[in-house]
Amino acid sequence: MRRIDVTGSDGVRLAAWEFADPPKGRRESDPASGVLLLHGLMGRAAHWAATARWLAERHRAVALDQRGHGRSDKPAEGPFTREAYVADAEAAIEQLNLAPVTLVGHSMGALTAWQLAARRPDLVRALVICDMRASALGAASQREWEDWFKSWPVPFATLADVRKWFGEDDPWVERPSPARGDFFAEVMAERADGWRPVFSRRQMLKSRETWVYDAHWEELAQVRCPALVVRGLDGELGRAEAQEMVRQLPFGQYAEVADAGHLVHYDRPEGWREVVEPFLEETAGHPVPSP
Known about the structure:
Order of helices and strands: EEEHEHEHEHHHEEHHEHEHH
Distance between the termini: 33 Å
Number of helices: 11
Radius of gyration: 18 Å
């Protein structure tokens, strides 16, 4: 795995991570093999490691630490708007010569992916939307997140405490799991007083408030490339809404992964691969429309 710095919107420095050398027989600059992986809110590029390993067998797999996350810049006042996140992903595709790219996004990263696909169809060959709703979540959801962040018992004394709280003891979730504990352990860093998140919870709320009050059906319907909507059976995206999203997409497909919650690719990596890999093979040669 190697790090490649990208200059995003407003000059923000973004850390992109390429998980393997280009597959044999493909040049690093070969655009047909490009896959850009976009994590969700509070995530980081490293969360895609298991996915990137099998992707790298046939594709050039790059994951992006989005602004405010991972090793990328965390500007005090942002911006953390939808426009900024989409522009950052666009810059990464162009600077890393990934176009026409397959975008694979989880949660907030999936929203970024379909907004970019709607805006720049010439850059995007195919799209994977993982457990992200197109409907508005509303003010109550944002207040719940504020209260949830306040409930975190930070600093954590050890990473084992991180895994236990998020994976077993978090009273705000219906489906705690060891995978969830591991997910949050990857976004903690050791400080003088213990383990704290690598991101600012205040910035996460600022980022979330730029999309949580609005529905995003119109942009979804503007996506012109093949798109796969994936949900975990116990995730945040309900089946009825997921299937309506597929109907809104001109070339939409639907898949669900059993025994998975919101963190589909983390909860059930084998099931995730089983539904995503055939879609990527099917769309590998799909023509990209003109802008």
